[in-house]
Structures are given as structure tokens and as C-alpha cells.
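BUG: 3D viewer hangs when loading the predicted structure for this chain

Environment: internal workstation, default settings.
Expected: structure renders.
Actual: progress bar stalls at 90%.

Input used:
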Amino acid sequence: MAEKEKINPVTLDIVKDSLIAVSNEIFYAFAQTSMSPIIYETLDYASGIADAEGRLLTQGNGVTGFIGMISPMICAVVEKHGKENLHPGDVYIINDPFMGGGTHMSDVGMVMPIFYHDELIAFAGNKAHWSDIGGMAPGSFTTDATNLYQEGMCFSGTKLVDRGELVEPVWDLMRSNMRYPQISQGDMWGQISSLRTGEKRICELCDKYGADVVKGSMERLVSQGEKVARRRLAEMPKGTWEMDEYMDNDGHGNPVHLQVKVTITDDEFIADWKSLEYTSFGFSPDYAEYYTDNGERVRSKSEIIIANKLYRYNIPYRYECPLQLQSGVITHPDFTCLNVSTRQEYIWKHFGIMDNAEYACNAIKKISDYANSGYVLGRNFIATFETANTPINANCIDSLIKSHLC
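C-alpha cells produced before the viewer hung:
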């Protein structure tokens, strides 16, 4: 989108820090309004902000395990109800252990879609341990339980607030099955009000910078997070690791044996790397057709030579995979390559008509833009050049592949 491309790094950082602040405000607002010491003293809860696709962007301080469940909770609610059936002011309650990354019944999650001018732009979510949710024992948590129904009421993404109004029959059902309804009611409203605080702040952010800038910044943050995660995963060494351990017991005096084996191989890593789905730049109907030995369509004879060399050296690559630069511009390097041994990604750009002055100036600008985004020639950026009198050199391609990608 055009607006997304205009996001500068300063604005991106401001929006990012604002989203972090919103998550923290949700967290502290809940602590200040809850009625259970397990929440306002122990802080047995977590909060976070996700984009319109349910991808977690920022989180407040809280229980790490709960933070990891905010995105699955949101996705479970969306899958069950559909985005078209979500409305401003809605809040959904979810504690089903088998839905949305649930734990036990006492850990109650809430999800609120955030709309700006009737457009869904984000979600706010939190998850907290309630003092009681019904069931066979006070506190709804006992090792004597032998089935799910003994642990309390189960909510599988149930609408609790409809367009800003509490769904009274749902609350009546909850209240009738709780030992301490006043405390649980306080926690419920604390969760709801803290999510409303997040909604207010996100809308204020859109008022200040515009919805397109906020949405574009969210997309950039997700993209950057993926790059960091993939970079860290790429640093993991090949090999096999095993762990053999026991939990104290299963609640009935029986030890629980845990055995884990993790194997990282080149084949599996390459398969995961190549499985990324993306949309390439595409070809216009009148564009000349060039195909590699692998049957892949490319844009020029020079790209055929490069692609064929990569294929013969067994170098995994993606052709014209979108890359978002620091400026926000989406570009499509000719090849994104993987060094299997080091797990490092390289981009490869071929500049084909360097004897054209305008083209050469644009090429220099592109190289500078790549460098500003962390893609530096000789480090993780490979470039080849040619003119009408100096065509691409196959031996040079061999050398570049051997020095960077093998």
C-alpha cells in the first residue's frame, strides 16, 4: 500500500513504543481494578496487543506462558465467529483447555476486537487466574479431579459483552456457579475495563498518525520479528539433543516421565526455509519468456545463468521474494539465497544495463537503500553487473557462489 511505503523509521519506532506502552497500560489497569490478590498482588496474568490477523505485536509484563496464549486465543475466537461477526465493543471469554492454547479452567482469557471507523485494525487480549470458576473444589483447582467438568465452567470463545453491553444471561450463569461471585465479578470487570483502555489508546494512535500508518507499522513489526526469529533459528547448530526428566507426580502419586529429542538437519532446515509462502513480482502479459533448467520463469538470460548456477550448486533460493526495506519500501531482490552451512541468508541483485546512465544511478541508489537496511555488499548482499560490451561472467558467478554460499 502507498501509505505503508511512506512510513519512516522514526514514525515506526514511535508507533512501536506506543504499542508497548498500550500493552503495559492494559496490564497495570487490570492490576489496579481487580479484586483478587492473586491478580493485584501475585500478578498471575498477562496482556497483549495483536494486529487484525491475530499476530501478537507487544505484551505487558506478566506470566510468560499466558503471553504465548494471547495470539492463539484471538485466532480461536476469529475462527469460531468469523471477522464479519465481530463488532466494536465486543468482548469474548475463553478458558477452554482444548481451544486457543488453554491451560486449566481457572485461567480465564478475554479477547476484544478493536475497530477504528468501523474497520478492524487490532485485538487486545488478556488472561488471568481467577479465584474461582466453579467446579468440585473451592478455587476450582484440585488434584482430585478426574475429568474436565469437575474443574469448573468452560467457555469456548463465548461472547460476554455485545457491542459494549454485558450479556446478562452469560453472567447470570457464571454467577450462579461460583462460590465467590463478587470477587470474580470484580476480576471480570477489571479485565474488560483494561481491554477498553487498550482500545481507547489504539484509536488515539490512529487519530494521531492515521490508520494506514498504524496498520503499516504493525505489518513492519511483524516482518522484523520474523527476520529476527529466523536469524536466531539459523544460528542453531546441526545435531541431536535429548532430555530425560521427571515431573514430581501426576497428582495421584505417579511420576510423569518426560523425554524430548530434537534433531536439526540440513534437509529439514532447507525444507522449512523453502516452505515460506510469498507472492513474487509477477510478469506482464507481453513480457519475454525465459526459463531456467529447473523450469522456473525469470526475467533475462543473465538471470537464467545465475539461477542455473545456484541450482547446480544445490543452493536453496527464492526468486523475487518480497523484502521490506528500512524505509518501508517493498522491493524484490532477484534471488534470496541460503548458505546451508552457516544458515545465513543473502540477497542477490543483478544490474544488467549499467551503460545506461539513468539505470546506473538507480542501481547505486538501490545499493545504498539495501545498505541502510542492513544488506551490505560482501556481507549478506551479492551484486553482479554487466553492460552491452561486458556481459555477465560465468566464472565470476562461480566464485561468488563458492565464497558466499557454499
